[in-house]
Amino acid sequence: MKIYNIALIGFGGVNRALTELIATKNSLWERDLGFRLNIVAVSDLYLGSVISPNGLDAKTLIEANFAKGGFGRLSGGSAEADNETIIKSAPVDIVVEATFTNPKDGEPAISHCRWALKSGKHVVTTNKGPVAIAAQELKALAKANNVHFEYEGSVMSGTPVLRMAEKTLSGAEIKGFEGILNGTSNFVLGRMENGLDFASAVAEAQALGFAEADPTADVEGLDVRLKVVILANELLGANLKPEEVSCEGISKLSPSDIDAAAKANSRWKLIGSAVRNADGTITGSVAPKQLPLEHPLAGVNGATNAVSLNTELLGSVTVTGPGAGRTETAYALLSDIVAIHNARSGSLAKDAA
Ligand SMILES: NC(=O)c1ccc[n+]([C@@H]2O[C@H](COP(=O)([O-])OP(=O)(O)OC[C@H]3O[C@@H](n4cnc5c(N)ncnc54)[C@H](O)[C@@H]3O)[C@@H](O)[C@H]2O)c1
Ligand SMILES: N[C@@H](CCO)C(=O)O
Predict the structure, then answer these.
(1) How confident is the model over 86-103, as pLDDT tens digits?
(2) ipTM above 0.95?
(3) Which candidate in 118, 227, 263, 350 is catalytic?
């Protein structure tokens, strides 16, 4: 049985949810997946950092109500978040990057990934910045250091779309996609349809753990723009940068726009899409669209996301599932670790034989 030592970078909603899963499910994973996870280091801007080579107790990490700089009180702890030392020096196999997504330049998360990969550590991340802005560089670094860079949770949280398309749609010729790719804005639009004001709906999404640290990224379309770039680059072989994707969010939609759509048997949805043009170029966009109720994406509600992949050989293939949420996103990290474990242990190769 394998034990993976891991470092958590960022100890917010997602990495706490992963810690809770570790506290409750390690024995199940040992039986069903063939590995256990052992948290050896944690670093968080607010709490500080801590390294314990034998492992930290996951239950204690969750239950202790640490104040600002609280990791400083632990053995091996410091009140400062020394990410660089933790990532480069902690004796871990996998660095779990779940700090905030910076839609402008992807930092400091890109540096976190770079340090880990250069140190010969696998990276699993739910952070969209490094994937949308620096995937090529980080994949090359992973390859050069014989480790994995995995990021299923960067699009649609734990709902499989990137790996599903890579593993099961090879040769189907994906020509484009359109989807609802932000849980917060979809949740907000739904709450506004029920009469709630915009600010209260955003506050609810924050409380439920769907929203970004700065929810402007959700409601102004910046988060979807990163996801459009990731999907276009991964599934269509594009080389898009975020600034090349046109972007409009939902913040200008007023209650009367929402009412008018309902009276016209339609609904506003924030749609992210990309298409391969006749000349081979790829165009991406993010914009609110008024969809008739019978449109397949019109019935996707709350923090649920959906993406319809337009393929040459299969027609339209739609994937629907949670697009945000702490545990749902922690599951994406687990699925990345399972992918690493299977690749390293050769179990996929055995399954295929
Ligand atoms: N919550 C979701 O539903 C969801 C879904 C998919 C992807 N994501 C992504 O996962 C990541 C984590 O999301 P979350 O909901 O846990 O966010 P969060 O805001 O709850 O937690 C982020 C944590 O990172 C810490 N942090 C910020 N900058 C840091 C730095 N430089 N060094 C160390 N720690 C730092 C913060 O103190 C905070 O505790 C984000 O990038 C987010 O975009 C979240
Ligand atoms: N804030 C994002 C999290 C998932 O990336 C959302 O609401 O969809």
Answers:
(1) 999 999 999 999 999 999
(2) yes
(3) 227
pTM of the entire structure?
A: 0.97
**Ligand whose nearest atom lies closest to the CA of 84:** 1
Q: How far is the CA of 143 from the centre of ligand 1 (A)?
A: 26
Q: In sequence order, which residues have a C-beta less than 8 Å from that of residue 24 and are 6 or more positions away?
A: none
Domains plus CATH for the chain?
2-157+327-352 (3.40.50.720), 162-323 (3.30.360.10)
Q: Is the CB of 328 under 6 A from ligand 2?
A: no
Q: Using one digit for the tens of pLDDT, what is the confidence trace for 244-296?
A: 999 999 999 999 999 999 999 999 999 999 999 999 999 999 999 999 999 99
The reply to whether ligand 2 has any atom less than 6 angstroms from the CB of 210 is yes
How far is residue 41's CA from residue 6's CA, in Å, rounded to a whole number? 7
What do you get for the CA distance between the two ends of the chain, in Å? 22
DSSP state of 154: G
* Centre of ligand 2 from the C-alpha of residue 31, in Å: 32
Of 205, 204, 247, the closest CA to residue 224 belongs to: 247
Catalytic status, residue 227: yes
Cα–Cα distance, 221 to 81 (Å, whole number): 30
Q: Of 142, 129, 230, which is closest to residue 179 (Cα–Cα)?
A: 230
Ligand 1 pocket, residues with Cβ under 6 angstroms: 9-14, 43-46, 81, 83, 98-101, 108, 126-128, 153, 157, 209-210, 212-213, 324-326, 329
